[in-house]
Design goal:
CATH topology: Arc Repressor Mutant, subunit A
CATH class: Mainly Alpha
Distance between the termini: 51 Å
CATH superfamily: Winged helix-like DNA-binding domain superfamily/Winged helix DNA-binding domain
CATH architecture: Orthogonal Bundle
Shape: globular
Strand order of the largest sheet: 1-2
Strand content: 5-15%
Largest sheet: 2 strands, antiparallel
Number of domains: 1
Structural class: alpha+beta
Helix content: 40-55%
Length: about 80
């Protein structure tokens, strides 16, 4: 059980470090390939990280790009 929790933390850290180096954002497929996990596993981890507010997501066409919150530049509000 402890090993599984450790692996989960390790994958989250790998994803965070990857997004630190790719400030323009990455798709699920790109993250999965670069970390060496399946697309489904990457999708699950990214959903958890988004819920924990550890990353932000923006849809561009059919692709969702994942960013670290401090790198995310959302649409500017008109005011």
């Amino acid at each position: 059980m402890f090993q599984m929790a450790k692996e989960k933390k390790g994958l989250k850290e790998k994803i965070s470090m990857l997004l630190t180096r790719h400030r323009y954002g990455l798709s699920i497929d790109e993250i999965a390939r670069m970390v060496g996990i399946s697309r489904i596993t990457a999708s699950k981890y990214l959903a958890v990280m988004e819920a924990e507010k550890r990353l932000s997501v923006r849809a561009i066409g059919n692709t969702k790009l994942h960013y670290l919150p401090e790198d995310f530049k959302g649409p500017k509000e008109e005011g």
